[in-house]
Amino acid sequence: MYRSHTCGELNSANIGEEVRLSGWVQKVRNKGFMIWLDLRDRYGLTQLIFDEERSEKALMEKAEKIGREFVIQVTGKVIERVSKNPNIPTGDIEVLVTQFDILNTSLTPPFTIEDETDGGEDLRMKYRYLDIRRNPVKNKLMFRHKVGMQVRNYLSNAGFIEVETPYLIKSTPEGARDFVVPSRMNEGQFYALPQSPQTFKQLLMVGGMDKYFQIVKCFRDEDLRADRQPEFTQIDCEMAFVEQEDILNIFEGLTRHLIKEINGVEIGDFPRMTYAEAMKKYGNDKPDIRFGMEFGELNEVAQNKGFKVFDQQELVVGIAVPAAAGYTRKELDKLIEWVKRPQIGANGLVWAKYNEDGSFKSSVDKFYSQEDLKAWAEETGAKPGDLILVMAGETRKTRTQLSALRMHLATELGLRKADDFAPLWVVDFPLLEWDEETERYHAMHHPFTSPKKEDIPLLESKPGEVRANAYDLVLNGNEIGGGSIRIHDKKTQSKMFDYLGFTEEEAKAQFGFLMDAFQYGAPPHGGIAFGFDRLVAILGGQETIRDFIAFPKNNAGRDVMIDAPAKLDKEQLDELHLQLKL
Amino acid sequence: MYRSHTCGELNSANIGEEVRLSGWVQKVRNKGFMIWLDLRDRYGLTQLIFDEERSEKALMEKAEKIGREFVIQVTGKVIERVSKNPNIPTGDIEVLVTQFDILNTSLTPPFTIEDETDGGEDLRMKYRYLDIRRNPVKNKLMFRHKVGMQVRNYLSNAGFIEVETPYLIKSTPEGARDFVVPSRMNEGQFYALPQSPQTFKQLLMVGGMDKYFQIVKCFRDEDLRADRQPEFTQIDCEMAFVEQEDILNIFEGLTRHLIKEINGVEIGDFPRMTYAEAMKKYGNDKPDIRFGMEFGELNEVAQNKGFKVFDQQELVVGIAVPAAAGYTRKELDKLIEWVKRPQIGANGLVWAKYNEDGSFKSSVDKFYSQEDLKAWAEETGAKPGDLILVMAGETRKTRTQLSALRMHLATELGLRKADDFAPLWVVDFPLLEWDEETERYHAMHHPFTSPKKEDIPLLESKPGEVRANAYDLVLNGNEIGGGSIRIHDKKTQSKMFDYLGFTEEEAKAQFGFLMDAFQYGAPPHGGIAFGFDRLVAILGGQETIRDFIAFPKNNAGRDVMIDAPAKLDKEQLDELHLQLKL
């Protein structure tokens, strides 16, 4: 037996007991006549002590050879500490060692195994197994497990069945690129890894499974942006005989449950907002509503006052930055610089200070009277002491730019509080999205999303205005889930493929099995999928997902620890009927 | 709202209520003046009624057009049935329909959606979404979910953390073939899909995760035998600071819990048997111990009696078939035929009837006296009325043949009862296994398995006799789990790679990261993995796994429903820097 207790559980109630512990040596303090070691395992730290008076000389000598991260097993007696440490649960006691074994030695680790490590990102990834020993990473992985268990138990109790869908499926060119898997047994043919179990979960609904969920890995061969992973985890859900309202209620319940159980925060009904409203008020379909700074559209009050820069634009729009009227010229210039960076791409930024005394001072005083600026304040909701920031240009682009500025300022001003949770449903997404490159409409969600019944007549005339039965769940400015009520009849689905520019042959080749299934009594159905990595990170109060993934890949899609991907032997390629074409 | 109740929940307590149901039409009975429909959903069946007297004519006419598997939504009143059906929970009531909508029509399904269907395996697989509507399949998938939840909750409560390990990893030529995934971003390089998360779980132990589990998909590109799938699910577990005894206890606990919670059967301590004993007594390292028929070795009592067929052989071994002394000549000939089939490959079979009167009658009476045969009975444990069957030959081969015969007879005699659970630990597996083809030793489990300390001196002299800290959990003659205590120091692991014929370079290229990790304080650790598909099937009282998998592949590794694998566009291959070599 390697241990009678873990390193996290001994306290003053155990004083006098003989115990056995195993773990890693976190720290060594050698005063010559006394040696302290901090022994660490997943559960905590326990202080070990050897001293001249009470420990055998041979034991002291052996203890001196122990280094950081050695794995040892000790037997000893729990004694009261002279100087207690109130910061850790075991801080009242220490273990006077009477016997120990070195179970394994350790080289000096390439970075310190401390909460604040000296290791950079690259080094930590290469030695991820050492990084995981650090509390911040270990705790995030344990946190992820806890969230996963809560999700599973909640959905299972609500009658959902977790069904494992296959990983070796069929490539569908629509959407992002698939990862593919050559088949050795079926010469010249390939499986694809699923981008999501979308079609399978719909088939499960056709199959009468009624309520399905799965926490499942999905794969997308995209050029990776920061904080995207080629493999990621989804909470995938689908229900039959439901309308949008049913889905929103069930998954609002799940999310509320998680925030309560995991974060101890009780949340009431989630607000709902149409896509159109979200774009108008926040310039963004996943607004962070933990703070205000809603957009005020200023066309009526800021155009035709002689300021040509505004007059020619489609949209003039501003926000009020709370208590920022005191910004210096330098601070304002920095903001103007910020929006002009290529990542944002704005032409400029107009500012107006709403002074505490009720007066206004702006960068465009030449064109606007105090009364004009007062009207700006009204539209943006500015109060004395606030700073109004205004941008103008093409509607879509300007909204995006102002949204970026709004988020930037909120972060700077500390308004995006990690322990504050502001969920929001965004509904009534457009069904179709115009793609400049291919010059045709694409499905905004995916080709299985149903249009709103009342908008179907618009499909021919104004396809861009057709709204879908599609919804996103937004939490603190992040889309954590999205879904839709699906099309469930072959006729509508065929028509949709048609609108999306699929030929009949293409639709049949790629989705024939789904279309076939729809002929045999497909029920009305819909669902949602949550990005599990992101959900866990946000519940954990973080913006980046990487440390919530045990073995993440870097931005080139590489696992630097195991050095994958890697070359294959020619023999292996031959068996797969493949050759490289470099 | 599509329904106020499911089709499984209404009973006499609901009589008089107005309800709304949605589901599939299971059956139509049209008596002209009266129409009954059985409406089905995941939860059950409810009888709907339309009649001349109480239903509107238009409604009756509409109802007449409904076919099997149509999806309908009905509103109606719960009434008492005239002729009750005590076999279903809703059998006391029916719903008098006042309004209904056809939500979707259905073509006539290619096979009947009944417990006993007329659809063959191929048709059922092609239309799996219809097959899943059938109770036997649907219930198996729900059963699988239940087992999964029990496993997760048990392990989580025992302090295990579920950690998701990556699916895009590195190919390791050892063992079965990997499925590989070409990397678009890393030209000429490939990921591999994991055959198991073995190295990652060991790295998690090095990382201090202490207790890990995961229910996870694994992939093996093997030539498929019946009832093997290229992708399969494993309950993968690993623990640090444990000895074999700790692992056996924990996972015996899990298995006992499952059998109790799922099957309602209480099981005491699991028996343990060494590999050597299992081979000697059952000719098999996964014996079914639900019944006896243990092997009796007969060399001492059957050799040197003038019967040359036995004299020349390495092993003469028999079993007693209970109450089978009455087998006719024809039945005995059939058994002899059976063992001579190429799948078994025996040369023959000697029989001896132990008659109720205490006398013997055998196929080799010329060579053996009554007293000789009495000795056979003693060795095989035969009682009057039993039939002794004896085989002879090379030890390993003969044991395998007799084991096959033992299982065949047990099945024939109904001794393998599905609701009887006989778990067994098989321990002390050999570390190495001689491979005739490559003429070298292979790791019997995998190259990370530790040898028993006391056997290490034999590694040089008699490698085949070295026992490993390796164990299998056997349930009803199936290996449901297997694992080992791992090597945790670089020196021993290097030596093991050496014994297994890896060059230093090969070992470094394939397992360098694990060897590196072992230098930084790897703890003693070990684990186990359960075949989840098989475990679920056995707990469900079945021998085949296919119907416990939602969308299984056929023996050619194809998904016939979605028709995968399939060809790729040339464009897609180009992007992956690949070309076919057919």
UniProtKB/TrEMBL annotation, chains A, B:
This is Aspartate--tRNA ligase. Keywords: Aminoacyl-tRNA synthetase, ATP-binding, Cytoplasm, Ligase, Nucleotide-binding, Protein biosynthesis. L-aspartate binds at residues 174, 220, 445, 486. It holds the Pfam family tRNA_anti-codon. Its EC number is 6.1.1.12. It catalyses: tRNA(Asp) + L-aspartate + ATP = L-aspartyl-tRNA(Asp) + AMP + diphosphate. NCBIfam families: aspS_bact (TIGR00459), PRK00476.1 (NF001750). ATP binds at residues 220-222, 229, 479, 531-534. Homodimer. It comes from the Bacteria. SUPFAM superfamilies: Class II aaRS and biotin synthetases, GAD domain-like, Nucleic acid-binding proteins. It is an enzyme of class 6 (ligase). It is found in: Cytoplasm. Residues 151-552 form the Aminoacyl-transfer RNA synthetases class-II family profile domain. Catalyzes the attachment of L-aspartate to tRNA(Asp) in a two-step reaction: L-aspartate is first activated by ATP to form Asp-AMP and then transferred to the acceptor end of tRNA(Asp). Belongs to the class-II aminoacyl-tRNA synthetase family. Type 1 subfamily. GO terms for molecular function: aspartate-tRNA ligase activity. Its main location: cytoplasm. The keyword Ribosomal protein does not apply. Residues 198-201 are annotated as: Aspartate.
